[in-house]
Amino acid sequence: MDAADETAKNMSVRPIVLLSMAGFCAMAVLRVSEPILPEVADEFGTTVGIASIMATAFALAYGVCQVFSGPFGDRYGKFLIITIALAASTIMVTATAWADSLTMLAWLRFATGAATAAVIPLSLAYIGDIVPYERRQHVLARYITGTILGLMFGQAAGGLIIELAGWRSVFLVMGGLYAVMTVLCFFELRSARVDRRRNQMPVRVKNVLAQYRSIVTRPHAKRVLLTVFLEGFFLYGGVAYLGAFLRHKFAIDYATIGLLLAGFGIGGLSYILASRPIIRILGESGMVSLGGVCALAGYLMMILLPDWQFAALGNFLLGFGFSMLHNTLQTNATQMAPDSRGSAVSLFAFSLFLGQASGVALLGPVVDGFGYTPAFIACGLGMLCLSLWFGRRLKSQPNEP
Protein backbone atom coordinates (compact mmCIF):
# COMPACT_ATOMS: atom_id res chain seq x y z
CA MET A 1 0.00 0.00 0.00
CA ASP A 2 1.51 3.37 -1.02
CA ALA A 3 1.39 6.58 1.01
CA ALA A 4 -1.72 7.90 -0.72
CA ASP A 5 -3.61 4.65 -0.07
CA GLU A 6 -2.55 4.62 3.59
CA THR A 7 -3.61 8.24 4.02
CA ALA A 8 -6.97 7.62 2.39
CA LYS A 9 -7.57 4.57 4.60
CA ASN A 10 -6.82 6.38 7.84
CA MET A 11 -8.34 9.77 7.09
CA SER A 12 -11.66 10.68 8.71
CA VAL A 13 -14.43 11.65 6.33
CA ARG A 14 -15.58 14.52 8.58
CA PRO A 15 -13.21 17.12 7.07
CA ILE A 16 -14.44 16.18 3.57
CA VAL A 17 -18.06 16.52 4.71
CA LEU A 18 -17.31 19.97 6.13
CA LEU A 19 -15.53 20.94 2.92
CA SER A 20 -18.61 19.85 0.98
CA MET A 21 -20.74 22.06 3.24
CA ALA A 22 -18.33 24.94 2.67
CA GLY A 23 -18.66 24.29 -1.07
CA PHE A 24 -22.42 24.62 -0.59
CA CYS A 25 -21.92 28.18 0.68
CA ALA A 26 -19.45 29.10 -2.06
CA MET A 27 -21.67 27.84 -4.88
CA ALA A 28 -24.85 29.31 -3.39
CA VAL A 29 -23.36 32.80 -3.14
CA LEU A 30 -22.16 32.47 -6.75
CA ARG A 31 -25.45 31.31 -8.27
CA VAL A 32 -27.65 33.66 -6.27
CA SER A 33 -27.02 36.36 -8.89
CA GLU A 34 -29.25 34.60 -11.42
CA PRO A 35 -32.70 34.93 -9.83
CA ILE A 36 -32.07 38.44 -8.49
CA LEU A 37 -30.77 40.02 -11.73
CA PRO A 38 -34.18 41.36 -12.89
CA GLU A 39 -35.00 42.90 -9.50
CA VAL A 40 -31.55 44.46 -9.18
CA ALA A 41 -31.92 45.93 -12.68
CA ASP A 42 -35.33 47.37 -11.77
CA GLU A 43 -34.12 48.90 -8.49
CA PHE A 44 -31.13 50.60 -10.05
CA GLY A 45 -32.93 51.58 -13.26
CA THR A 46 -30.85 49.67 -15.80
CA THR A 47 -30.98 46.67 -18.15
CA VAL A 48 -30.39 43.06 -17.22
CA GLY A 49 -27.28 43.01 -19.39
CA ILE A 50 -25.74 45.94 -17.51
CA ALA A 51 -26.85 44.62 -14.11
CA SER A 52 -25.02 41.38 -14.90
CA ILE A 53 -21.84 43.23 -13.89
CA MET A 54 -22.52 41.85 -10.42
CA ALA A 55 -22.11 38.30 -11.76
CA THR A 56 -19.12 39.24 -13.89
CA ALA A 57 -17.37 40.97 -10.99
CA PHE A 58 -17.76 37.95 -8.70
CA ALA A 59 -16.54 35.49 -11.32
CA LEU A 60 -13.58 37.66 -12.33
CA ALA A 61 -12.39 38.14 -8.75
CA TYR A 62 -12.98 34.47 -7.95
CA GLY A 63 -10.85 33.43 -10.89
CA VAL A 64 -8.03 35.94 -10.49
CA CYS A 65 -7.58 35.24 -6.79
CA GLN A 66 -7.01 31.55 -7.49
CA VAL A 67 -3.44 32.40 -8.41
CA PHE A 68 -2.89 33.43 -4.79
CA SER A 69 -4.97 30.88 -2.88
CA GLY A 70 -3.37 27.82 -4.50
CA PRO A 71 0.25 28.54 -3.54
CA PHE A 72 -0.80 29.63 -0.04
CA GLY A 73 -2.75 26.39 0.36
CA ASP A 74 0.25 24.33 -0.71
CA ARG A 75 2.54 26.24 1.65
CA TYR A 76 0.44 26.67 4.81
CA GLY A 77 -2.13 23.89 4.58
CA LYS A 78 -5.26 23.73 2.48
CA PHE A 79 -7.78 23.38 5.32
CA LEU A 80 -6.31 26.39 7.15
CA ILE A 81 -6.55 28.66 4.12
CA ILE A 82 -10.12 27.49 3.46
CA THR A 83 -11.12 28.40 7.03
CA ILE A 84 -9.60 31.87 6.70
CA ALA A 85 -11.41 32.33 3.37
CA LEU A 86 -14.74 31.42 4.98
CA ALA A 87 -14.23 34.03 7.71
CA ALA A 88 -13.48 36.77 5.16
CA SER A 89 -16.44 35.71 3.03
CA THR A 90 -18.80 36.02 5.99
CA ILE A 91 -17.97 39.72 6.26
CA MET A 92 -18.19 40.48 2.54
CA VAL A 93 -21.42 38.57 1.85
CA THR A 94 -23.20 40.24 4.75
CA ALA A 95 -22.01 43.71 3.69
CA THR A 96 -23.51 43.18 0.22
CA ALA A 97 -27.01 43.55 1.69
CA TRP A 98 -26.33 47.27 2.26
CA ALA A 99 -25.17 48.18 -1.29
CA ASP A 100 -26.83 51.47 -2.28
CA SER A 101 -25.79 51.55 -5.94
CA LEU A 102 -24.99 49.14 -8.74
CA THR A 103 -21.36 50.22 -8.56
CA MET A 104 -21.12 49.42 -4.86
CA LEU A 105 -22.94 46.14 -5.42
CA ALA A 106 -20.46 45.18 -8.12
CA TRP A 107 -17.47 46.02 -5.88
CA LEU A 108 -18.89 44.05 -2.96
CA ARG A 109 -19.54 41.08 -5.22
CA PHE A 110 -15.96 41.43 -6.44
CA ALA A 111 -14.72 41.38 -2.83
CA THR A 112 -16.89 38.35 -2.07
CA GLY A 113 -15.49 36.50 -5.06
CA ALA A 114 -11.95 37.29 -3.93
CA ALA A 115 -12.65 36.17 -0.36
CA THR A 116 -14.33 32.87 -1.24
CA ALA A 117 -11.97 31.94 -4.06
CA ALA A 118 -10.01 29.38 -2.06
CA VAL A 119 -12.91 27.24 -0.85
CA ILE A 120 -13.79 24.86 -3.70
CA PRO A 121 -10.40 24.59 -5.49
CA LEU A 122 -8.46 23.88 -2.31
CA SER A 123 -11.15 21.40 -1.23
CA LEU A 124 -10.63 19.50 -4.49
CA ALA A 125 -6.87 19.61 -3.98
CA TYR A 126 -7.29 18.39 -0.38
CA ILE A 127 -9.25 15.38 -1.65
CA GLY A 128 -6.60 14.83 -4.32
CA ASP A 129 -3.98 14.67 -1.58
CA ILE A 130 -5.70 11.90 0.39
CA VAL A 131 -7.55 9.80 -2.22
CA PRO A 132 -5.76 7.73 -4.94
CA TYR A 133 -6.65 8.55 -8.55
CA GLU A 134 -8.58 5.37 -9.30
CA ARG A 135 -11.05 6.21 -6.51
CA ARG A 136 -10.95 9.96 -6.83
CA GLN A 137 -13.73 10.52 -9.37
CA HIS A 138 -16.22 8.67 -7.15
CA VAL A 139 -15.18 10.67 -4.06
CA LEU A 140 -15.29 13.94 -5.98
CA ALA A 141 -18.74 13.06 -7.28
CA ARG A 142 -19.87 12.71 -3.66
CA TYR A 143 -18.08 15.91 -2.64
CA ILE A 144 -19.87 17.96 -5.27
CA THR A 145 -23.19 17.03 -3.67
CA GLY A 146 -22.60 20.04 -1.44
CA THR A 147 -21.79 22.36 -4.33
CA ILE A 148 -24.83 21.23 -6.30
CA LEU A 149 -27.13 21.66 -3.30
CA GLY A 150 -25.61 25.11 -2.91
CA LEU A 151 -26.34 25.84 -6.54
CA MET A 152 -29.95 24.77 -6.03
CA PHE A 153 -30.25 26.83 -2.86
CA GLY A 154 -28.78 29.90 -4.54
CA GLN A 155 -31.27 29.63 -7.40
CA ALA A 156 -34.45 28.28 -5.78
CA ALA A 157 -34.21 29.73 -2.26
CA GLY A 158 -32.85 32.95 -3.74
CA GLY A 159 -36.00 33.39 -5.76
CA LEU A 160 -38.21 32.52 -2.79
CA ILE A 161 -36.43 34.93 -0.44
CA ILE A 162 -36.79 37.70 -3.03
CA GLU A 163 -40.55 37.20 -3.09
CA LEU A 164 -40.76 37.25 0.71
CA ALA A 165 -38.27 39.93 1.71
CA GLY A 166 -36.40 41.35 -1.31
CA TRP A 167 -33.00 40.66 -2.82
CA ARG A 168 -31.01 42.20 0.05
CA SER A 169 -32.28 39.56 2.48
CA VAL A 170 -30.67 36.88 0.30
CA PHE A 171 -27.22 38.13 1.29
CA LEU A 172 -28.12 38.32 4.98
CA VAL A 173 -29.15 34.65 4.88
CA MET A 174 -25.96 33.70 3.04
CA GLY A 175 -23.84 35.65 5.51
CA GLY A 176 -25.36 33.65 8.35
CA LEU A 177 -24.60 30.35 6.62
CA TYR A 178 -21.00 31.42 6.04
CA ALA A 179 -20.65 32.33 9.72
CA VAL A 180 -21.80 28.87 10.80
CA MET A 181 -19.34 27.15 8.47
CA THR A 182 -16.49 29.36 9.66
CA VAL A 183 -17.05 28.24 13.25
CA LEU A 184 -17.37 24.54 12.33
CA CYS A 185 -14.19 24.54 10.23
CA PHE A 186 -12.26 26.47 12.90
CA PHE A 187 -12.96 23.78 15.49
CA GLU A 188 -12.29 20.96 12.99
CA LEU A 189 -8.94 22.55 12.17
CA ARG A 190 -7.90 21.99 15.78
CA SER A 191 -8.58 18.24 15.59
CA ALA A 192 -6.26 15.43 14.50
CA ARG A 193 -8.55 14.48 11.63
CA VAL A 194 -7.34 17.21 9.29
CA ASP A 195 -4.54 16.41 6.85
CA ARG A 196 -1.84 19.05 7.47
CA ARG A 197 0.60 18.42 4.64
CA ARG A 198 2.36 21.47 3.29
CA ASN A 199 5.44 22.19 1.26
CA GLN A 200 8.39 24.29 2.33
CA MET A 201 8.57 26.53 -0.72
CA PRO A 202 8.13 30.20 0.31
CA VAL A 203 5.26 32.01 -1.39
CA ARG A 204 7.26 34.42 -3.50
CA VAL A 205 6.47 35.76 -6.93
CA LYS A 206 9.30 33.92 -8.66
CA ASN A 207 8.39 30.62 -6.99
CA VAL A 208 4.70 30.98 -7.84
CA LEU A 209 5.50 31.85 -11.45
CA ALA A 210 7.82 28.87 -11.70
CA GLN A 211 5.09 26.58 -10.35
CA TYR A 212 2.54 27.82 -12.84
CA ARG A 213 5.01 27.73 -15.70
CA SER A 214 5.72 24.10 -14.90
CA ILE A 215 2.00 23.27 -14.95
CA VAL A 216 1.03 25.05 -18.17
CA THR A 217 3.87 23.48 -20.13
CA ARG A 218 2.43 19.98 -19.62
CA PRO A 219 0.40 18.92 -22.69
CA HIS A 220 -2.55 17.38 -20.87
CA ALA A 221 -2.73 20.31 -18.44
CA LYS A 222 -3.01 22.70 -21.41
CA ARG A 223 -5.98 20.74 -22.75
CA VAL A 224 -7.74 20.62 -19.39
CA LEU A 225 -7.27 24.35 -18.79
CA LEU A 226 -8.48 25.31 -22.27
CA THR A 227 -11.49 23.03 -21.99
CA VAL A 228 -12.59 24.33 -18.60
CA PHE A 229 -12.22 27.95 -19.79
CA LEU A 230 -14.54 27.31 -22.73
CA GLU A 231 -16.89 25.29 -20.52
CA GLY A 232 -17.20 28.30 -18.23
CA PHE A 233 -17.84 30.58 -21.20
CA PHE A 234 -20.51 28.47 -22.92
CA LEU A 235 -22.20 26.84 -19.94
CA TYR A 236 -22.08 29.29 -17.05
CA GLY A 237 -22.10 32.29 -19.38
CA GLY A 238 -25.43 31.21 -20.86
CA VAL A 239 -26.97 29.86 -17.67
CA ALA A 240 -26.51 33.27 -16.01
CA TYR A 241 -29.29 34.62 -18.27
CA LEU A 242 -31.82 31.82 -17.89
CA GLY A 243 -33.66 33.49 -15.02
CA ALA A 244 -33.97 36.78 -16.88
CA PHE A 245 -35.06 34.87 -20.00
CA LEU A 246 -37.91 33.14 -18.15
CA ARG A 247 -39.02 36.42 -16.58
CA HIS A 248 -38.97 38.14 -19.98
CA LYS A 249 -40.74 35.42 -21.93
CA PHE A 250 -43.37 34.24 -19.44
CA ALA A 251 -43.60 37.07 -16.87
CA ILE A 252 -43.62 34.55 -14.01
CA ASP A 253 -42.75 35.39 -10.40
CA TYR A 254 -39.23 35.11 -8.96
CA ALA A 255 -40.02 32.20 -6.65
CA THR A 256 -41.22 30.11 -9.61
CA ILE A 257 -38.16 31.11 -11.62
CA GLY A 258 -35.92 29.98 -8.77
CA LEU A 259 -37.66 26.60 -8.60
CA LEU A 260 -37.35 26.13 -12.36
CA LEU A 261 -33.66 27.00 -12.28
CA ALA A 262 -33.20 24.41 -9.55
CA GLY A 263 -33.68 21.80 -12.29
CA PHE A 264 -29.99 22.40 -13.06
CA GLY A 265 -29.03 21.20 -9.59
CA ILE A 266 -31.43 18.26 -9.75
CA GLY A 267 -29.70 17.19 -12.95
CA GLY A 268 -26.37 17.33 -11.14
CA LEU A 269 -27.69 15.32 -8.20
CA SER A 270 -29.08 12.73 -10.59
CA TYR A 271 -25.63 12.32 -12.06
CA ILE A 272 -24.15 11.85 -8.58
CA LEU A 273 -26.69 9.15 -7.71
CA ALA A 274 -25.91 7.31 -10.94
CA SER A 275 -22.20 8.21 -11.13
CA ARG A 276 -20.78 4.78 -10.30
CA PRO A 277 -22.40 2.88 -13.21
CA ILE A 278 -22.03 5.89 -15.53
CA ILE A 279 -18.28 6.09 -14.86
CA ARG A 280 -17.90 2.33 -15.27
CA ILE A 281 -19.91 2.07 -18.50
CA LEU A 282 -18.98 5.27 -20.34
CA GLY A 283 -15.51 6.01 -19.04
CA GLU A 284 -14.10 9.52 -19.06
CA SER A 285 -14.28 10.01 -22.82
CA GLY A 286 -17.88 8.84 -23.14
CA MET A 287 -19.04 10.95 -20.20
CA VAL A 288 -17.50 14.09 -21.66
CA SER A 289 -19.09 13.55 -25.09
CA LEU A 290 -22.54 12.77 -23.70
CA GLY A 291 -22.30 15.79 -21.42
CA GLY A 292 -21.99 18.09 -24.43
CA VAL A 293 -24.98 16.47 -26.16
CA CYS A 294 -27.10 16.99 -23.03
CA ALA A 295 -26.01 20.62 -22.75
CA LEU A 296 -27.01 21.35 -26.35
CA ALA A 297 -30.36 19.62 -25.81
CA GLY A 298 -30.95 21.67 -22.67
CA TYR A 299 -30.28 24.99 -24.40
CA LEU A 300 -32.47 24.07 -27.38
CA MET A 301 -35.30 23.02 -25.08
CA MET A 302 -35.15 26.38 -23.32
CA ILE A 303 -35.43 28.20 -26.65
CA LEU A 304 -38.32 26.05 -27.92
CA LEU A 305 -40.34 26.06 -24.69
CA PRO A 306 -44.07 25.82 -25.43
CA ASP A 307 -44.81 26.69 -21.80
CA TRP A 308 -42.75 27.71 -18.76
CA GLN A 309 -43.26 24.37 -16.96
CA PHE A 310 -40.88 22.68 -19.42
CA ALA A 311 -38.01 24.93 -18.28
CA ALA A 312 -37.29 22.55 -15.41
CA LEU A 313 -36.51 19.74 -17.88
CA GLY A 314 -34.24 22.01 -19.94
CA ASN A 315 -32.35 22.99 -16.81
CA PHE A 316 -32.17 19.34 -15.77
CA LEU A 317 -30.42 18.43 -19.02
CA LEU A 318 -28.02 21.33 -18.64
CA GLY A 319 -27.15 20.27 -15.09
CA PHE A 320 -26.79 16.59 -15.93
CA GLY A 321 -24.59 17.27 -18.95
CA PHE A 322 -22.47 19.81 -17.11
CA SER A 323 -21.87 17.43 -14.19
CA MET A 324 -20.63 14.62 -16.42
CA LEU A 325 -18.20 16.92 -18.18
CA HIS A 326 -17.11 18.92 -15.16
CA ASN A 327 -16.60 15.99 -12.79
CA THR A 328 -14.26 14.47 -15.36
CA LEU A 329 -12.40 17.75 -15.75
CA GLN A 330 -12.08 18.13 -11.97
CA THR A 331 -10.64 14.64 -11.62
CA ASN A 332 -8.08 15.32 -14.35
CA ALA A 333 -7.23 18.68 -12.76
CA THR A 334 -6.30 17.04 -9.44
CA GLN A 335 -3.66 15.02 -11.27
CA MET A 336 -2.17 17.77 -13.46
CA ALA A 337 0.64 18.44 -10.97
CA PRO A 338 0.63 16.17 -7.88
CA ASP A 339 3.70 17.95 -6.50
CA SER A 340 1.81 21.29 -6.30
CA ARG A 341 -1.80 20.17 -6.36
CA GLY A 342 -3.25 23.28 -4.72
CA SER A 343 -1.71 25.54 -7.34
CA ALA A 344 -2.77 23.24 -10.18
CA VAL A 345 -6.42 23.04 -9.10
CA SER A 346 -6.49 26.78 -8.40
CA LEU A 347 -5.22 27.42 -11.92
CA PHE A 348 -8.01 25.15 -13.14
CA ALA A 349 -10.57 27.21 -11.19
CA PHE A 350 -9.01 30.42 -12.50
CA SER A 351 -9.57 29.21 -16.06
CA LEU A 352 -13.17 28.19 -15.31
CA PHE A 353 -14.22 31.46 -13.79
CA LEU A 354 -12.30 33.59 -16.24
CA GLY A 355 -14.32 31.76 -18.88
CA GLN A 356 -17.53 32.42 -16.96
CA ALA A 357 -16.75 36.11 -16.51
CA SER A 358 -15.95 36.42 -20.20
CA GLY A 359 -19.11 34.57 -21.17
CA VAL A 360 -21.42 36.68 -18.99
CA ALA A 361 -19.77 39.92 -20.13
CA LEU A 362 -19.76 39.13 -23.87
CA LEU A 363 -23.21 37.56 -23.94
CA GLY A 364 -24.75 40.58 -22.20
CA PRO A 365 -24.59 42.83 -25.31
CA VAL A 366 -25.86 39.92 -27.45
CA VAL A 367 -28.87 39.48 -25.16
CA ASP A 368 -29.59 43.23 -25.04
CA GLY A 369 -29.15 43.71 -28.79
CA PHE A 370 -30.40 40.49 -30.40
CA GLY A 371 -32.33 38.58 -27.74
CA TYR A 372 -31.75 35.36 -25.86
CA THR A 373 -32.13 32.86 -28.71
CA PRO A 374 -28.84 33.60 -30.56
CA ALA A 375 -26.92 33.55 -27.28
CA PHE A 376 -28.36 30.18 -26.20
CA ILE A 377 -27.82 28.58 -29.62
CA ALA A 378 -24.18 29.69 -29.66
CA CYS A 379 -23.65 28.34 -26.14
CA GLY A 380 -25.26 24.99 -26.94
CA LEU A 381 -23.27 24.43 -30.12
CA GLY A 382 -20.10 25.57 -28.35
CA MET A 383 -20.62 23.00 -25.58
CA LEU A 384 -21.22 20.21 -28.09
CA CYS A 385 -18.09 20.94 -30.14
CA LEU A 386 -15.97 21.37 -27.04
CA SER A 387 -17.06 18.10 -25.45
CA LEU A 388 -16.58 16.07 -28.61
CA TRP A 389 -13.08 17.47 -29.06
CA PHE A 390 -11.99 16.90 -25.46
CA GLY A 391 -13.60 13.46 -25.40
CA ARG A 392 -11.54 12.39 -28.40
CA ARG A 393 -8.37 13.77 -26.81
CA LEU A 394 -9.04 11.82 -23.61
CA LYS A 395 -9.61 8.64 -25.58
CA SER A 396 -6.38 8.96 -27.54
CA GLN A 397 -4.16 10.42 -24.78
CA PRO A 398 -5.74 9.77 -21.37
CA ASN A 399 -4.53 11.81 -18.40
CA GLU A 400 -0.93 12.46 -19.36
CA PRO A 401 0.71 14.44 -16.54
Account of the 3D structure:
The chain has helices at 3-10, 14-31, 33-43, 48-51, 53-64, 66-76, 78-96, 102-116, 119-130, 133-165, 167-189, 205-216, 219-239, 242-250, 254-261, 263-273, 275-303, 311-333, 341-370, 372-396. By secondary structure, it is mainly α. It starts with a helix and ends in a 5-residue tail after the last helix. The relative contact order is 0.16. The model is unreliable at 1-10 (pLDDT under 50).
Strand and helix map with partners:
Blueprint: H1 3-10, H2 14-31, H3 33-43, H4 48-51, H5 53-64, H6 66-76, H7 78-96, H8 102-116, H9 119-130, H10 133-165, H11 167-189, H12 205-216, H13 219-239, H14 242-250, H15 254-261, H16 263-273, H17 275-303, H18 311-333, H19 341-370, H20 372-396
Write down the overall geometry.
globular
Following the backbone from N to C, one meets helices and strands in this order, namely: HHHHHHHHHHHHHHHHHHHH
N-to-C span:
22 Å
Largest beta-sheet characterization: none
- Strand count: 0
Provide a count of the helices.
20
The SS-based structural class is mainly alpha
Instruction: Extract low-pLDDT stretches.
Output: 1-10
- How much of the sequence is in beta strands? under 5%
**Which range best describes the helical content: under 10%, 10-25%, 25-40%, 40-55%, 55-70% or over 70%?**
over 70%
Gyration radius, in Å: 20 Å
The whole-number mean of residue pLDDT values reads 82
